[in-house]
Design goal:
By secondary structure, the protein is α+β, with helices and mostly antiparallel strands. The chain has a single domain, classed as GAF domain (Beta-Lactamase, 2-Layer Sandwich). 41% of the residues lie in helices and 15% in strands. It is built from 5 helices and 3 strands, in the order αααβαββα. Strands 1-2-3 form a 3-stranded antiparallel beta sheet, sandwiched between helices. It is globular. The two termini are 24 Å apart.
């Protein structure tokens, strides 16, 4: 049995609120583009099998990330989790600390992992891959 932190709901609320309130406009557009013509950071994250914890976005090589993403989201740190159906990548889950501009903690990354794994399995079951 997994024990989740007592303040999980409080900490997750920032992530959910940001995703909900920014589900359109420039925030969503900052993630769109051609993976073959844009900087390769998101493509590399998409090719992974597991979530990527980026502890400090400012240490990324210049030009490694789409500038519109950096300007719009102003990320400090975050988690990028590739969504797959079978071996085919279909999208990314992006998580950060919202408007607090604080680094994502390792414990929070582990919580995302707990959500990510069943989400991937569920998607594969829906697609009759498993």
């Amino acid at each position: 049995m997994w024990k989740l932190p007592d303040n999980l709901v409080e900490r997750s609320a920032g992530w959910l609120a940001r995703a909900w309130s920014h589900s359109s406009g420039p925030y969503l557009r900052a993630f769109s583009g051609s993976l073959s013509h844009e900087p390769q950071f998101f493509l590399k994250a998409l090719k992974r099998l597991d979530p990527l914890l980026v502890t400090d976005f400012t240490t990324q090589e210049a030009g490694a990330m789409k500038q519109e993403f950096v300007d719009t989201w102003k990320p400090v740190s975050g988690i990028l989790a590739p969504l797959r159906v079978g071996t085919r990548p279909i999208g990314l889950i992006y998580c950060d600390r919202g408007t607090r501009n604080q680094p994502v903690l390792l414990q929070e990354s582990q919580i995302v992992q707990l959500v990510f794994m069943p989400t991937t399995l569920g998607g594969n079951r829906l697609a009759d891959v498993l």
